[in-house]
Amino acid sequence: MNLVSEKSGRNLDVSIVIPAFNEEESISELAREISECMKDVLYEIIVIDDGSTDGTWERIVELSSRFPLKGLKLNSNQGKAAALAAGFAESSGKFVVTMDADLQDDPSEINEMISLMEEKNYDLVSGWKKNRKDPAGKTLPSKLFNFTVKLTTGVKLHDFNCGLKVYRNNVVKNLELYGEMHRYTPVLAAQQGFSVGEKVVHHRPRKYGKTKYGVARFFRGFSDLLTVLFLHRYSYRPLHFFGAIGTLLTLVGFGISAYMTVLWFGGEPIGRRPLLLLGVLLLVVGFQFISLGLLGEMLLKLSGRKSFVILEKAESSGEKK
User: Is residue 176 domain-shared with residue 268, that is, in the same domain?
Assistant: First the structure.
């Protein structure tokens, strides 16, 4: 099944969001490939220049006069997550596609991914670069990363790092991306109740330039994994986290203090005993953790932040919107 229909009188079908950093050589070729694959589809291309130092922006401006392409220029190199967030905010298509600008993602996969999404009723379909055209220095850490993310989050995907993904529009409008969070969009979507699927995609060798991947990004990705896991469990229940730690410390401190009190009543000197200081310290720190949890609850209430996402609406006529 293809996303093929007449263009006239319809809303936008597909928004293709492409972050670009120093991709002057590849962006023109990518725009041509997309236009060939999307001939019968009403689409837009949104290219985000993430602080490039070459002629990427000038090339984007030139392409915007030849293709249905919109360029966004960020003030500096903010990272892929920020670039995607900017593109998501500008997107208006029923489906939102993300892909890298380096020509390694194949635009011919887009229609098939959308077809799978509609057939299986997925909200997000992530590409799986099963036969990856990258050096071992990039693929081996990626395999370890993917295994760890799958194990810790329960989201059963083989390739979280694949830049080629298709989302329903309401998914991207509910994602909050920063840091290295772009790696975890399937996890973030699944945590909000959206259904996530996967499709094997064609991956091509890099044609121009050099990879932006580095060891530092690998470790930052794991740091953000801890953030994703923590926020999912406690962002709407801060007292559950801080209160649990505070209660445990307070109980231990109270027990030590009670023991020292019994010794004092028994006539033993306790003023110079380190255990007394430990008991008092645990009581103070325990109360501080509980106070942090209560402050978190107050801030959450004052912020008015919603803990839910409305997936569909059913009107009195029975129609879904």
Answer: no
